[in-house]
Amino acid sequence: MWELVNDSSLDQNSPYKYIMMCEYFADTCVVAKENDELAGFVTAFIPPEKPDVVFVWQIGVDSSQQGKGIASRLLNELIQREACEDVRYVEATVTPSNRASQSLFRGLARKHNTDCKVSECFTEDLFPTDDHEEELAFKIGPLK
Mean pLDDT across the stretch 20-46? Predict the structure, then answer.
């Protein structure tokens, strides 16, 4: 996962983050493989104070696999998992320039015939460097 992100324009996290997510949040992390190679992944968790929400931390698809609907299938696999049986909402933060993720989450809402609400979340001034855009909160649901 780290290598896929490192070779993309996604926000880079430490290798430890991916190991930790897969160890402690395995039920809400999904990978897609093609010919035993990582094609894409989603890392997510259910916040303890919001048991009806799954928060998508990061979703990535290898550049050679983009345009095949992998990200949509990963999200649908995530919300169909037993760990998400009580989940009614998918939440994520997305930068304004990340049109692909915005489209992905709006598409998830359409597919499930539900709402996609977008609101302000983390402003630019909260980040330690000047090169990080604000993060908008996306809330998809209710599901099911």
Answer: 94
